[in-house]
Amino acid sequence: MGRTRLADEGDPLWEVVHSGFRLNYRDRDPAFGGWKRSLLANGSADVRAGTALLAVLAPLGPYFPDFLTPPEASRGLEEGLEAMLSTPRGRLRAELSRLAENSPVPSRFQALAEGKPAVLRGVAAVLRGFHSAVVSPHDGAIRSAVAADRAHRSRVLAQEGVEGLLATLPAARWVSPVLEVEYGVDRDLHLDGRGLLLVPSFFSQRLPLSLADPAMPPTLIYPIDSALRWQSLAADRHGGLEALMGPTRAAVLVAVGERAGTTTTQLAKRLSASLASASRHAAVLRAAGLITTHRDGPAMLHTLTPLGIALLETRRSAR
Prior knowledge:
319 residues; alpha/beta; four-stranded mixed sheet; 54% helix
């Protein structure tokens, strides 16, 4: 239990899979109604290609392959796609064979099962384009909602311990020493001392999900509270801090505020930007009196000033 951890932020490839579920299947969540209608009515080639691919590889059923959501994606979309490209051929074949036992897999996917590099790169390109068209436009809303969820559960963890944290998870019940989770299939996952990583998801629907292979790092991807989605999507539509500062600098300020200290390297990864770009944005916020920076060993550590904290608190209160 002491190894139970909360992820710092959402996982981009899990968000791709979950947003694919919402687009490909019936979705009763009103928070996503306008989003879904707009994407399907005015869908770009990236949206069409992504939904078609995910309808095959990630069906709403008892199984979809783990190679689509490698643990490395917790470090960013490109790291996740690189890990997917490195999936061993034997694992690809085994996972796609298992998928075919539960859901139709067209013959054209045989080349993927054979691990042909060009085909894998094509899948990665489709997922990258889908993420750019469907997930990235709402990065601010997603990060804000996920950060609010994490802050709430972190407070529970500090006050009530791991058992209290597990009791907050949706569609789950802690019955010592077992965490019982409503799930699409009946299965047991034994941690064997490995601990459990809890990953919040913005696009996830009602039930948590995990990796299918029990040998992989134990991970539970759970849906954040619908109220946080409503608030964040509303703020996303109306601009707020992003309209004042621009989306990138607003994202930098929010990112610094989510931790006791954030390095320039962490900012660059969070924004999918270069170190130089992250450093420039941090310098602008520092000059405005919103953050302060000091050296911590080889790294430059950024923290909010009282003015920066007040600006973020005003933004949250406005919601």
